[in-house]
Structure formats: structure tokens, C-alpha cells
Amino acid sequence: MTAIIIPCYRVEQHIAGVIRSIPKQYPTIICVDDASPDSTAHVIESLGDSRVVLVRRERNGGVRAAMKTHVRPGSVTA
Predict the structure, then answer these.
(1) pLDDT tens digits for 30-54?
(2) CA of residue 28 relative to chain centroid, distance
(3) Beta-carbon neighbour count of residue 5 at 10 Å?
(4) Higher-confidence position of 6 and 68
(5) 71 vs 68 pLDDT, higher one
(6) How far is CA 12 from CA 8, 45, 47, 57, 70, in A?
(7) What is the DSSP letter of 39?
(8) What are the two backbone dihedrals, phi and then psi, of residue 17, each rounded to the nearest 5 degrees?
(9) Per-residue b/e over 14-45, b at no fewer than 16 CB within 10 Å?
């Protein structure tokens, strides 16, 4: 499976455009909300893109931690 991982923190104004710009040939887009205090997660959920999987972190750990967030094999479906 080919997936794109997008670490997300305070990107509510830009995330919709980023996701829409990803070609349809990518079957899975994993957005890792790094405990963002804004409406980033809500914007992602409201897109209704079936390729998008939202993973929420409880504490902000920065880009490195978001990119290393564990996603169990088989737990992501698109």
C-alpha cells in the first residue's frame, strides 16, 4: 500500500487545499493531527474524502513524532 503521511498542526486554513492537491492514484492519505489547538481535525473530517485517515495525537510532539506515529498494519483502510 502506498500512503502519504501529513503531519498536521495549526493548518486549518491550508489542509483542505493540500489534500485536494494529492492525485487520486494515492489510495491512502494519513493525516496525523499533532494535538492541534485549532480546527484542523474538523476540516479534515468535513472533506469527506474516503482516502483520508485521521490519526489524533493527544500531546503535541512535533513533526518527527507525528511522522513516527504508529499506525498498525491493517488498521488503515481507504
Answers:
(1) 999 999 999 999 999 999 999 999 9
(2) 10
(3) 16
(4) 6
(5) 68
(6) 9, 11, 12, 16, 23
(7) S
(8) -65, -40
(9) ebeeebeeeeeeeebbbbbbbbbeeebbebbe
Cell of 24: 487520486
Contacts of 45 (CB under 8 A, 6+ apart): 54
In this predicted structure, what is the pLDDT of residue 6? 94
| Kind of pairing between the strands at 52-57 and 3-8 | unpaired
Q: Is the pLDDT of residue 69 over 90?
A: no
> 495525537: which residue's cell?
57
| Cβ–Cβ < 8 Å for 21, 8 | no
pLDDT at 28: 93
Q: 2: closest CA among 20, 18, 22?
A: 22
